[in-house]
Design a protein that fits this description.
The complex is a heterodimer of chains A (375) and B (374).
Chain A (H helix, E strand, L loop, with lengths): L6 H17 L2 H9 L6 H9 L18 H14 L5 H13 L3 H12 L5 E4 L15 E5 L2 E12 L6 E7 L10 E7 L5 E7 L5 E13 L3 E2 L5 H37 L1 E2 L2 E2 L4 H26 L5 H30 L9 H14 L4 H9 L3
Helix pairs in contact in A: 1-4, 4-7, 5-6, 5-7, 7-8, 7-9, 7-10, 8-9, 9-10, 9-11
Chain B lengths: L14 H14 L17 H14 L6 H14 L2 H13 L4 E4 L15 E5 L2 E12 L6 E7 L10 E7 L5 E7 L5 E14 L3 E2 L5 H15 L3 H17 L1 E2 L2 E2 L4 H29 L8 H22 L10 H6 L14 H8 L9 H12 L3
Parallel strand pairs in B: 1-4
Antiparallel strand pairs in B: 2-3, 3-7, 4-5, 5-8, 6-7, 9-10
The chains are: A alpha+beta (375), B alpha+beta (374).
């Protein structure tokens, strides 16, 4: 087996590394997080110029036709910089839906993503649903050639920045049936859509969305009516693969920072890294990181496999990444002592992002259940 | 870092809020049950005090500020002169004097004895120069009990003294440190040519380390926090009974439920370990190095509770709802259930408990050396 990267892939990585170096050191990142908008439009324009926003789309649709490994590289490097701009939400998740949509939808929406004009967010979670993607009380009923949507979507990541949403709705069946789920495109300015935006603990932004008799054309349906569950699960798995990639980037920064700190911080007349109990903790952090890299490579290579194989890959990776995120995040803070607790040092911010990744698109319990029921 | 009130949404409390329960208890004469009766204690035995702690936790009373009552009070009773016993203890009991703890420095954390804040005797005063950090709630403090270096030769432990410093003295500058949860509890305290009357020395010059160790030993016994943790587990169960997973209550999910059970077993073990420690103490033994167990297990359990609470609220651990944000919001879209507010910040904040009061690594070293004789 060969896990080395092609020249082109290495070039892509270098490009993003220099973007982070120039535009995303910790102080600049914090300034973005604390700004009123919470993201930087200029960065988004740069993503467009660098071609990153067109990465996974086919050449026919105006994209670069890259695969999951390239997405992994981008997400991993963004993870190192704690980038808040909603790349995964727009390009990987919503882009993933659009890539599988009808020719007319592709034509209508993909150019706006590639050019950087549109930002998208995926509104799927509901307060009662926890991590079950099929637990939906938001409904859409066909009325002539329009769907009328009613319901509530919670913690929509990147919602404040988005002008378009992809919304999972129930068009038939019972609350948790896998049949009867549909995927609709909803414009933020739709009548009947109310939104409340807020900051999140990891420096991003999210929204609560209420849909009250929101009317969208039936042309805005992605895939077949009532058959959306499979597509949603696929896209969520692709998103999980990207989030795992982001996580290993963040873990790498924390591990390096911790080792460096323990080499220089002196107590009892010597660097604290000389104490064996701390050495072993750092070795455990290193091993957790390596295991996470392995699982991240694995899931990114298996996204196109048949269902059971893909299911186990995505859930397995998410479990490993969640465990490592917790262990590495907590340990990095502990080994930095009081400094790790401060807002001033970057360590706490990586810890917070990793803590949110732990539960994003399903926590450990959720994915262990998915894994064991995959067959 | 000094110990703090980990279970509270601290940042929204004012100085007056934090002192309100203190004042009620002072009026009633119940403010310092752990002190000898002659100094203002209640004369309760260990069982009565235990019940008292339990009931306060059950009622969810505002935690008392520990720096005077738990830390400095016993030091003054044990080491102070008659004059100090009079004014210091009175001020602590009434709540008129808010104390903070001037221990850690940027170069002296786990290795506290390497502290460098210097006090030079000039006539009937000490002149103090240096820098303290992680000073909890110093922004409210009237006074600081402070470890200072009065001698440079010999072992570092032998040149430390214990001084009481008026925070209004010229040359003291308090600067906030914002923690990763966005709160302001800890501070840096800069001391430049601060003039401290020589009578504010506690005990003898250069015996500060003995006092510091005595104080940290006391700090560890109070740190288990069993009653508060029990209350927090109850709250966790309430949340898990309100949350849903596949149409069922989360509390009925076998995976989640066994995690709660596991936590309760740990907490029960800690409760009985603490009771055994207290029983020994009531016979006049200890608290010995065993009390490090209470600090380690107590803080691990507190951390685990916040972890599971965050897990229980699912997606709604994400919103960062500061008081300022909540004030400007309208009511038409509330953000998650009330019980989800601040759970992630609480989880982040509680990471400090395994760092402060002597990190858990240091506590294990103490047990290894003092108990196991390694």
């Amino acid at each position: 087996m060969d896990f080395s990267f092609s020249e082109e892939q290495t070039l892509l990585r270098n490009t993003i590394q220099s973007f982070i170096q120039d535009n995303y050191d910790f102080d600049k990142r914090q300034a973005i997080v604390k700004s009123e908008e919470g993201m930087k439009q200029e960065n988004w324009k740069q993503f467009a110029e660098l071609g990153l926003l067109g990465l996974p789309f086919s050449e026919e649709d105006g994209g670069l036709n890259f695969g999951s490994v390239e997405t992994m590289i981008v997400a991993e490097e963004f993870g190192k910089g704690l980038v808040v701009e909603p790349y995964i939400q727009t390009v990987v998740t919503c882009g993933g839906f659009l890539r599988r949509a009808s020719a007319s939808i592709k034509e209508k929406y993909i150019p706006g993503i590639i050019s950087g004009e549109d930002i998208w967010a995926f509104a799927y979670a509901e307060p009662q649903g926890r991590y079950n993607l099929n637990d939906l009380t938001t409904t859409a009923t066909l009325d002539g050639d329009h769907y009328i949507i009613n319901g509530y979507k919670s913690v929509v990541s990147g919602g404040p920045w988005a002008n378009k949403f992809i919304v999972s709705v129930r068009t038939s069946g019972d609350q948790r049936d896998s049949d009867g789920i549909s995927v609709l495109i909803v414009d933020k300015n739709s009548e009947g859509l109310s939104i409340r935006d807020y900051p999140t603990v990891d420096g991003s932004r999210a929204s609560e969305i209420t849909l009250e008799n929101v009317s969208v054309s039936k042309d805005e349906l992605i895939g077949e009516e009532g058959k959306g569950a499979e597509l949603i699960e696929l896209i969520v798995d692709e998103t999980i693969a990207a989030i795992c990639s982001e996580a290993i980037g963040a873990m790498k920064v924390l591990n390096d920072a911790t080792v460096e700190y323990c080499k220089t911080r002196k107590q009892f007349g010597q660097p604290i890294g000389k104490f064996q109990v701390l050495q072993h903790r750092m070795v455990d952090m290193f091993m957790q990181y390596e295991q996470s890299v392995s699982m991240t490579y694995m899931v990114n290579l298996k996204l196109d496999e048949e269902y059971a194989e893909r299911r186990k890959a995505a859930s397995g990776a998410k479990v490993q990444i969640a465990k490592a995120a917790k262990f590495i995040g907590q340990s990095a803070v502990q080994l930095h002592g009081g400094m790790g607790m401060t807002d001033e040092l970057n360590v706490g911010h990586y810890f917070k992002r990793l803590s949110m990744i732990e539960n994003s698109y399903g926590n450990i319990d959720h994915h262990l259940k998915k894994y064991s029921s995959a067959g | 870092m000094a110990r703090r009130i980990w279970w509270n949404k601290r940042t929204d409390l004012t100085r007056e809020d934090m002192l309100s329960w203190h004042k009620v208890l002072y009026k009633k004469g119940w403010i310092a049950p752990q002190w000898p009766e002659e100094y203002g204690g209640t004369g309760w035995n260990i069982t009565q005090r235990y019940i008292w702690d339990q009931e306060c936790a059950n009622a969810g009373t505002t935690p008392l500020i520990p720096f005077g009552l738990t830390m400095l009070g016993p030091v003054i009773i044990g080491f102070g002169n008659e004059d100090q016993k009079d004014w210091v203890l009175k001020g602590i009991l009434s709540g008129n004097d808010w104390w903070c703890q001037g221990y850690s420095e940027s170069g002296a954390g786990s290795d506290l004895a390497s502290l460098r804040t210097k006090a030079e005797k000039v006539g009937d005063h000490y002149i103090v120069n240096g820098h303290k950090t992680w000073t909890t709630l110093a922004q409210f403090a009237d006074w600081m009990f402070c470890l200072v270096r009065t001698k440079n030769d010999g072992k570092p432990q032998e040149g430390i003294s214990f001084l009481l410093i008026d925070m209004k003295t010229e040359g003291i500058d308090v600067k906030p440190i914002i923690t990763l949860d966005g709160g302001h509890e800890v501070n840096e305290v800069f001391l430049e040519d601060v003039k401290v009357p020589a009578e504010n020395l506690v005990g003898e010059e250069n015996m500060g380390w003995t006092i510091a160790k005595f104080l940290l030993g006391n700090e560890r016994t109070g740190i288990a926090g069993v009653a508060r943790s029990k209350k927090a587990v109850e709250r966790l169960k309430d949340i898990a009974s309100s949350e849903y997973i596949d149409g069922e209550n989360l509390i009925n999910d076998s995976d989640f439920n066994s995690k709660i059970a596991d936590l309760e077993v740990d907490l029960t073990a800690l409760e009985y370990t603490e009771l055994r420690t207290l029983a020994k103490e009531s016979k006049g033994e200890g608290p010995g190095a065993e009390s490090s167990i209470l600090k380690i297990k107590g803080t691990e359990i507190q951390q685990r509770i916040t972890e599971l609470t965050m897990e229980a609220v699912g997606h709604y651990s994400n919103p960062y709802l500061t008081p300022a944000f909540e004030r400007q919001g309208s009511n038409y879209l509330t953000i998650g259930p009330d019980y989800s507010h601040g759970v992630a910040q609480n989880y982040f904040n509680t990471r400090k408990t395994s760092i402060y009061g002597g990190s858990n690594e240091i506590q294990k070293n103490i047990i290894a050396k003092m108990v196991l004789g390694l």
